[in-house]
Amino acid sequence: MPQPQPQPWSPLDEYLWHTCDILADVLSGTLSRRPLLATHAPVAACDRVLAVGPANRLTWRAYGNGSYTHNQVVAFGSPAFVAGSLLGNALGNSSRRRQAERNAQPRWAMEGTGELTITLHKAYINSPSTSIHTEIYWAGLSSIDLVAPDTVETRFINNQGQLMTIRLQTLWASLIFVLAALNTFPHHPRLLTCGWLPPGFEQRCTAAGKPCRPAAELALNRGTS
Length: 225
Known about the structure:
Strand 3 and strand 4 form a beta hairpin. The longest helix has 25 residues. By secondary structure, this protein is α+β, with helices and mostly antiparallel strands. Helix content is 33%, strand content 27%. It has two domains: 170 residues, PH-domain like (Roll), CATH 2.30.29; 42 residues, no CATH class. The chain has a seven-stranded antiparallel β-sheet with strand order 4-3-2-1-7-6-5, with helices on one face.
């Protein structure tokens, strides 16, 4: 019977391998051995850039508030013309009302793609196409989770006092999750169960000839201390 072939090494695997390498340096106090990374993001002198790459930013929000323009029509002419005009206007109002109702329902809205910078203390995404710059400090988060291997979801209060729920789609999602969890949610179930890595990932790295540093164990010990 033929033996099952191992899955090919993927871009996500490569990012996870580097995530483990970065986290091992963070948790072992050996960040000084890493090269400095260039970024357009503002970085405090006491902070350190850990990774840079592209990301999509999505926001959980409604596209409208439920309002719409209700047209009033006064028609003159034959009965058939008047009836047709009133019917057309009624159908138009009904269509606009339904669209307004749909727009009032919150959904994930794509806000743009930009350069993501991850540091010891925050994530920063610059979206030139929309002029949206998002700065997310780990200490200011009210929740964090890894909702897909390449997507992290978080909630926080912005500078205007609004509760924001956003997602960042990036192959650095696991790095963001672990840094935020270690800082603000050290007893997060996903951190304590090493659920930010696929099952058997470290063994898979070894089989692929790319031994992985024990970041999951280091994070677990730090999280339960």
